[in-house]
Design a protein that fits this description.
This protein is α/β, with parallel strands linked by helices and about 220 residues long. The protein has 2 domains: about 130 residues, Response regulator (Rossmann fold, 3-Layer(aba) Sandwich), CATH 3.40.50.2300; about 55 residues, Winged helix-like DNA-binding domain superfamily/Winged helix DNA-binding domain (Arc Repressor Mutant, subunit A), CATH 1.10.10. Helices cover about 55% and strands about 15% of the residues. The chain has 10 helices and 6 strands; from the N terminus they run βαβαβαβαβαβααααα. A 6-stranded parallel beta sheet has the order 2-1-3-4-5-6, sandwiched between helices. β1, α1 and β2 form a beta-alpha-beta unit. α7 packs across α10. The protein is globular. Keywords: DNA-binding, Phosphoprotein, Transcription, Transcription regulation. One of its GO terms (biological process) is phosphorelay signal transduction system. This is DNA-binding NarL/FixJ family response regulator.
Length: about 220
């Protein structure tokens, strides 16, 4: 769908792989009505560039260093509620699809079909409509049916935002002291969060945490 006339949607694109950004930018800049005004290599840079450029739409990869796409989405939604957000990911993962919606994103686009879906998702987001790829629709329906059958509400978040942050850094191979320095907390606090993660997720060591982080799309293999 093309929108040759009318206002141009200004886009912030965030992905830690320059080649991915280049490919996605080619798709977006080739579409009338869409233009990339800034590129970020991680979530923290995305938030800083959003402050500088005030884009209409942010497209964020989930698995980025320093700050995940989900956390960046939460921060962007908090600071600029009118900014539209799309999550771009390699992973068709239900858990992070629902987390993306809770983080303020209006769409979840798989990188494998970005050439087919991304432009449509951008236009849908700017119309204030959610963009759901077919697998996400299936997940939503299944989730609704499961909750309706059990008569329950949406299950609580499995891990906290801070635990998610520490899980990502542990999985990337950082020591407790390095994580403490990055997050400006004590190493003892990091160890406590790490122990809580192992207990909550029913895991026994860093290797299992790393596999889990890869499986849910928090880091890339």
């Amino acid at each position: 769908m093309s929108v040759p006339d009318g206002p141009v949607t200004r886009i912030l694109l965030a992905d830690d792989h320059a080649l991915v950004r280049r490919g996605v930018r080619l798709i977006l800049d080739g579409e009338p009505g869409l233009t990339v005004v800034a590129e970020a290599g991680d979530g923290a840079e995305a938030v800083a560039l959003a402050r500088e450029h005030r884009p209409d739409l942010a497209i964020l990869d989930i698995a980025m260093p320093r700050m995940t796409g989900l956390r960046a989405a939460r921060e962007l939604s908090r600071q600029w509620p009118d900014m539209r957000i799309l999550i771009l990911t390699m992973y068709d993962n239900e858990q992070y699809f629902f987390e993306a919606l809770k983080s303020g994103a209006s769409g979840y686009v798989l990188k494998s079909v970005a050439d087919r879906d991304l432009v449509e998702a951008c236009h849908a987001a700017m119309r204030g409509e959610p963009f759901l790829y077919p697998g996400a629709v299936t997940a939503l329906i299944r989730d609704y049916l499961d909750r309706a059958r059990e008569g329950g509400a949406v299950p609580p978040r499995a891990i906290t935002e801070r635990e998610e942050e520490i899980l990502k850094l542990v999985a990337e191979g950082h020591t407790s002291q390095e994580i403490a320095d990055m997050l400006v907390i004590s190493a003892k606090t990091v160890e406590r969060h790490r122990a809580n993660l192992l207990q909550k997720l029913g895991m026994k060591d860093r290797l299992e945490l790393t596999r889990y982080a890869i499986r849910v799309g928090l880091i890339e293999p």
